[in-house]
Design a protein that fits this description.
Elements: H1 3-6, H2 8-12, E1 34-41, E2 45-53, E3 56-62, E4 74-82, E5 91-93, E6 101-113, H3 125-131, E7 133-140, E8 144-153, E9 163-168, E10 176-177, E11 183-184, H4 208-219
Antiparallel strand pairs: 1-2, 1-6, 2-3, 3-4, 4-9, 5-6, 6-7, 7-8, 8-9, 10-11
Bound molecules: manganese (II) ion.
């Protein structure tokens, strides 16, 4: 499926004459695939967790946000594929529009697919998502380490709505080594519960409220 076909649902929900969200016309040929976590102060506050897969951002709404604690199982509800440029979106979606409310980029970075089959062979990442279980290593400013997304309801031939869990993998030793060989201390207690109203944009350091205020000042995307 081309990016254009994949984004049909996304575009159908939005009026691009009104919202400043991207339509999604560019194609990226990058190195490592990217991820982004946005905080979206919509009708219900939630985090949007997005992974670049085959030219689009596969997306899940995570009401409580991702946790750095392996004991936390975070509900993740799939939403429509978003264009890659959406990772740059920070601003206000007008009231009355789909998803109306303020968005900040809470974390971003690259990820490394880790999905394997039972014999230990690497599986194309898009396939692992289709099958309902994907593992990956995040290298963000806030999130580091191995995570898994697992579908536990719906999907395949089911007509039920899909529900997934986003869970941090248990660390094998006391410290984690990322790709550059630097070691990191394990996440501090409490690292699992970002408060969305106090959280700051990884891009601009602003809170949701500050982004909303600058938009209200006629500053547009601020
Ligand atoms: Mn959202």
């Amino acid at each position: 499926m081309s990016g254009d076909e994949r984004l049909g649902k996304y575009r159908g929900k939005r009026d691009f004459g009104t919202t400043s969200e991207p339509r999604g016309d560019t194609v990226r040929h990058g190195d490592a695939p990217c991820f982004v976590v946005q905080i979206h102060d919509a009708r219900r506050m939630h985090f949007d967790f997005r992974l670049e897969v085959d030219g689009v951002l596969k997306s899940w709404a995570v009401p409580k946000g991702p946790s750095a604690e392996p004991k936390d199982k975070r509900l993740a509800v799939p939403t429509e594929d978003h264009p890659l440029e959406y990772r740059d979106f920070e601003g206000v979606i007008p009231k009355g529009e789909y998803g109306g409310g303020t968005v900040i980029v809470w974390d971003e970075g690259t990820y490394r697919p880790l999905s394997h089959d039972r014999r230990g062979h690497a599986v194309p990442f898009g396939d692992s998502i289709e099958r309902g279980h994907a593992t990956f290593w995040l290298e963000g400013s806030k999130l580091h380490g191995e995570y898994a997304l697992t579908r536990f309801h719906g999907g395949r031939d089911s007509t039920e709505p899909e529900a997934w869990l986003l869970i941090k993998a248990k660390e094998k030793t006391g410290t984690v080594h990322d790709r550059t060989g630097r070691s990191r201390a394990p996440a501090a207690p409490g690292a699992g519960a970002p408060d969305p109203r106090r959280a700051r944009s990884v891009r601009t350091g602003r809170t949701l409220q500050q982004v909303a205020e600058s938009a209200a000042d006629g500053d547009g995307r601020g």
